[in-house]
Amino acid sequence: MKAAFQKNYKALTIGGILIILLVITLSRYGIFHYVDTPYLIFINILLFIFYWLVLSFFIHQFSIYKVLGLLGILLTVAVTDFYLDINKNPITIPLLILFWLGVASLILPEFFKKYKIAILSVYGLVTTYYFFDFVMTPSYGGMHRKNFSIVWLMPIPVFAALWVYEQWRWLKTLQADKGKAELALLKSQINPHFFFNTLNNLYGLVVEKSEQAPEVVLKLSDMMRYTIYKGKEDFVPLEDEVAYLENYIELHKIRYQKKVDIRFTKQIAADYTIAPLLFIILLENAFKHGVERMTVDAYVRLNLTAQDHQISFVIENNFEEPSTKKPIGIGLENLRKRLDHIYPNQHQLQINKKAPIYKVQLTLNLSND
Q: How many domains does the chain fold into?
């Protein structure tokens, strides 16, 4: 903070000195006149403070040599206008063009650098037109300068509109990149969350030396391959996602010693695509919070319908209320965020929990499928 204050103080000091020197120089040439009217004195004081602050800002932000160069151009314009007839002066307007191009290069460096050729070409042609008109018109006067001012100002709205478009496009790109980064983070949270539970299941089988452990390893390998390679894609065939769910169900059937009634009905009318790893979160919750806590008569019902550019996934399971309240996991919250990213205003997630039944319906509207 101290360094920033010292830098600001230095810029204000240098800016004040330059403004005072500029006023003295202009006064010597008779360009600037002191006034004794209170109103004009007040106005001059306000202008002095304004120019001081603007100049100090430029000194603070940019190289002092660049700022001095622009001040030199502006001073040259003032002196030449004082000594030469304003209507017979071929230097002022090109110098003013150069001054404002210099200001633009300082304030908007990236934009100026990107469109430097176009900007310099346009104003190069404008300056050429000015000299040609000046040389070819013996009676060059105020009307000609006024007409040329229109020509000089015409490209400015075009470049201003281009700059606004660039900012709009940059903002949209920034929002898209932010959305992709957040979505990638959510996916990275889903995979460890799922495999943590699955590896725990596998560990139990290995401890028991179950003959089914190799089959679980094989299925887990297939599921990991799908998660790693398909999970990073934006959309996958719905049939692949269904196969992934079926592998998950078979893996759990191998694990459980108790009888679990699991039924998965499907009605898929077309080749739809879907964001990967959406349904698995709901299925995982059904096993984790339902089947694993039920001692007898546990069941899971799944129904998937895909037709008329709409996918409906309904999952229902029974459960027992835990004796102690446990914190909500990250799975369902991540699902909500992913749906908001991928299917904004195109999804409905309905959760009905009324002991002993837990039912979730996820509907996706694929209008552009």
A: 2
Same domain, 136 and 279: no
List of residues 6+ apart from 142 with CB closer than 8 A: 87
Nearest to 317 by CA among 364, 252, 226, 365: 252
Q: Do 297 and 215 share a domain, yes or no?
A: yes
Q: Which stretches of the chain are assigned E, i.e. beta strand?
A: 236-237, 260-268, 273-274, 298-307, 310-318, 347-354, 357-365
Number of C-beta neighbours around residue 75 at 10 A:
16
State the Cα–Cα distance between residues 248 and 313, nearest whole angstrom. Answer: 16
Q: Do 158 and 183 share a structural domain? A: no
Q: Which residues have C-beta within 8 Å of that of residue 208, sequence separation ≥ 6?
A: none
Q: What is the CATH number of the domain that holds 330?
A: 3.30.565.10
What is the signed CA dihedral for 348, 352, 353, 357, rounded to 10 degrees?
Answer: -120
Answer with the one of 111, 137, 170 that is the final residue of a domain.
Answer: 170
The parent domain of residue 151 ranges over 2-170
Mean pLDDT split into 10-residue runs, the chain, 369 residues: 53 70 62 61 73 76 81 79 67 81 85 87 84 72 69 80 83 65 55 63 72 78 81 86 90 75 91 89 86 84 94 93 65 82 90 90 82
Distance of CA 67 to the CA centre of its chain: 33
Distance CA(276)–CA(227), nearest Å, equals 8
* Pair (9, 114) in one structural domain: yes
pTM: 0.52
**pLDDT value of residue 326:** 60
What pLDDT, on the 0 to 100 scale, is given for residue 245? 92
State how far the Cα of 291 lies from the Cα of 297, in Å rounded to an integer.
9
Task: Tell me phi and psi for residue 85, to 5 degrees.
Answer: -65, 125
